[in-house]
Design brief:
globular, 4-stranded antiparallel sheet, 1 helix, alpha+beta
């Protein structure tokens, strides 16, 4: 399992990984995408913010949220906030 500096969401059953340096807007982009797809009636859920674990299984890439930050997201300057999440996505 590899730890990456990234944010992850899942949309319509497909995981989306957003990588970038600190302060580049990964979290805000994820929240905007979640709002857009949910408003369109498409399933969309938050997986992990700032750190993700990546692993390969049966030829598929799996993204998981590390336990210590599960269900937490940090908007710059506002600190961590608790929100609903799914623990993993393909």
């Amino acid at each position: 399992m590899h730890n990456r500096h990234a944010t992850a969401i899942v949309v319509a059953g497909t995981g989306i990984l957003i990588e970038g340096e600190s302060g580049t807007g990964k979290t805000m982009l994820a929240f905007e995408a979640l709002a857009f797809f949910r408003a369109a009636g498409v399933f969309a859920a938050f997986v992990s913010d700032d750190q993700v674990y990546l692993s390969a299984r049966s030829g598929r890439l799996i993204v998981r949220t590390p336990d210590p930050i599960a269900g937490l997201a940090e908007a710059r300057g506002l600190g961590p906030a608790k929100l609903e999440h799914v623990p993993a996505a393909v």
